[in-house]
Amino acid sequence: MNSRYHGRRRQRQRGVNPLLVGLCVALVAVILLVVNIIAGHNRKPQPDPGEPSGPVEPVDPTTPDDPANPDTPDNPDTPDNPDTPDNPDTPDDPVEPDGYERIEINGDQHQYNAVYRIGDTGFEMYTYVPETAQKYANAVNTAADKLQGTAGVYAITVPLSSGITMPDDLLGTSLFGDQKAAESKVVSMLDSSVKAVPLYDALMRHRTEYVYYRTDHHWTGLGAYYAYRAFCQTKGITPHELTDYKTEDYTGFLGEFYSSTESSELGANPDTVTAYFPIANPPMTVTNQKGITETYPSVICNESTAPAAYKYGAYIYGDNPYTVITNPDVNDESTCVVIKESFGNAFVPFLVDHYHTVYVLDYRYWGGDLQTFVRENGVEDVVFINNLSAIRNSYLMGKLQSMVG
Amino acid sequence: MKRAISLLLTLLLVLALVGCGGAKTKDVDVAALAAELAEKVKFESNEMRKLSADDLTNYMEVPEGAKVAFYMGEGMTMEEIIAVQCANEKDAAALKTAMETLLANQIDSARPYKPESVPRLENPALIQKGACVVLCVTDDVDTAEQIIKGYLG
């Protein structure tokens, strides 16, 4: 009996218990299963390919701070001043107007999405976007580089009314950005071969004049005239005096601020579009967005009977992909091309008396290559004139880069 | 009996290991997809211009290793087709976010000048499946989505 007992004990001691192995394997399997289940809960659900993502909520590019509490930290994606990092301990200081005429707040205030109203005047809210400003500078620099030896390149960056005619207590605050600093930043990114034409000072010296519309985001013909003087100074030519121009007024203009807010305060005090006719006043040929080419007797369109919203179209008949103005009174074959959005419309008439041919390309609609165009048309000056709101828009700057190549 | 239990437990282990792996999605022929969208979807533009992957980098960062098909409509219609097969799902998700940002910027620029383009920007066909993401901005969203679903599965 004892020998059988010892024999069985010796058999148990030989090799690994298979049940024990199986239990270990089972334990590992359970652990793996549990880990897989937990990972599955944490994984973001994949969109059902049968269901689209649905309407896209537009991201408001301004994302302003709370205007009722200016000491709240800036949204780090929308800094006020591109030179100073966001600091929650320091309030948003208004920019001092540096010896320019002061403007006081006159009227009640109301914010409508991207438009801010003070009394009977609307202002576009603005934030500087460094990445998009760099895109703009890259596009202009690329043009200058590719056209070296062929054409000179000018860059005019236009501040908005919220950076110039804004009352001083709000000038440069987070809702409207420090547009003086923004312009400086953009200009600093331009190559030395680009002839920059800064406008901040030129416009601030005339900020109490009618240089921007109240009911629209554009500048007036007068604002564009001061930009023209700044351009002449950079180019080294003599500008015409304001009194040299014949003018026509188109009253009752209610622009984009009015149409987007339907504010009765804006509606009660419409703007006047004052058009400045070139001294030579030649005809103008336009290819419109439908591809139809027409010739008009003047660069100024008579908008006296146009609907209230359309009066800014007085300047070169509005936004067209391609425009040509030939001035027979300038017979030296000088040629320029203006690359613009709509702010450029009010500026172009002032160039007409200085070039034999002025081409105007709206890069939002024109699909050609700039370098090819310049070479084929013997252009000697390329003038980029772009407002700060466009310069912060990545879609528009993508369009500009596509044109430049 | 003990062997049977061990075998069963081993099988369980193998199944658990298989369950941990993710399903691999197939690559999509984005060039064919985009071409079919350009041909069959109704656009306001007379022509959808075929552009290059380099052109797309003017509007957004394109991940490395991505295959791109890109078309744009005329002027400020804001119509476009962007189909991208990325190297992985994470890149596709990032690209989808970049497309949403582009749409927001387009809405911003269309509102003052071409407000009739805004509705199509607010309701585009924007679909991601796995490592593939497709955007088609058009009023003919139903046709676009049908074509996209046919390729993405």
Which terms would index this structure?
heterodimer; A: about 400 residues; alpha/beta; 8-stranded mixed β-sheet; 3-stranded antiparallel β-sheet; 13 strands; about 15% strand; globular; B: about 150 residues; alpha+beta; 5-stranded antiparallel β-sheet; 6 helices; about 50% helix
Draw up the topology in text.
The complex is a heterodimer of chains A (405) and B (153).
Chain A: H1 2-13, H2 18-42, E1 109-112, E2 115-118, E3 121-124, H3 130-146, E4 152-158, H4 179-188, E5 194-196, H5 200-204, H6 221-235, E6 246-253, H7 256-261, H8 264-267, E7 271-277, E8 284-287, E9 293-296, E10 322-326, E11 335-340, H9 343-351, E12 357-362, H10 370-377, E13 381-387, H11 388-391, H12 394-404
Parallel strand pairs in A: 4-5, 4-13, 11-12, 11-13
Antiparallel strand pairs in A: 1-2, 2-3, 6-7, 8-9, 8-10, 10-12
Helix pairs in contact in A: 3-12, 6-9
Chain B: H1 2-20, H2 30-40, E1 49-51, H3 53-56, E2 67-72, E3 80-85, H4 89-113, H5 118-122, E4 125-129, E5 132-137, H6 141-152
Helix pairs in contact in B: 2-6
In short:
With 405 residues, chain A is α/β, with parallel strands linked by helices. Chain A has helices spanning 2-13, 18-42, 130-146, 179-188, 200-204, 221-235, 256-261, 264-267, 343-351, 370-377, 388-391, 394-404, and strands spanning 109-112, 115-118, 121-124, 152-158, 194-196, 246-253, 271-277, 284-287, 293-296, 322-326, 335-340, 357-362, 381-387. Helix content of chain A is 31%, strand content 17%.
What can you tell me about this protein's structure?
- The complex is a heterodimer of chains A (405) and B (153).
- Chain A has 405 residues and is α/β, with parallel strands linked by helices.
- Chain A is 31% helix and 17% strand.
- Chain A contains twelve helices and 13 strands.
- In chain A, the strands form three sheets. Chain A has an eight-stranded mixed β-sheet, sandwiched between helices. In chain A, strands 1-2-3 form a three-stranded antiparallel β-sheet.
- In chain A, strand 1 and strand 2 form a beta hairpin.
- In chain A, helix 3 packs parallel to helix 12 and helix 6 packs across helix 9.
- Chain A is globular and about 110 Å long.
- The N terminus of chain A is likely disordered.
- Chain B is built from six helices and five strands, in the order H-H-E-H-E-E-H-H-E-E-H.
- Chain B starts with a helix and ends with a helix.
- A five-stranded antiparallel β-sheet of chain B has the order 1-2-3-5-4, with helices on both faces.
- The model of chain B has no long low-confidence stretch (mean pLDDT 90).
- Chain B is α+β, with helices and mostly antiparallel strands and 153 residues long.
- Chain B is elongated.
- Chain B has one domain.
- Chains A and B meet through helix 2 and helix 12 of A and helix 1, helix 4, strand 4 and helix 6 of B.
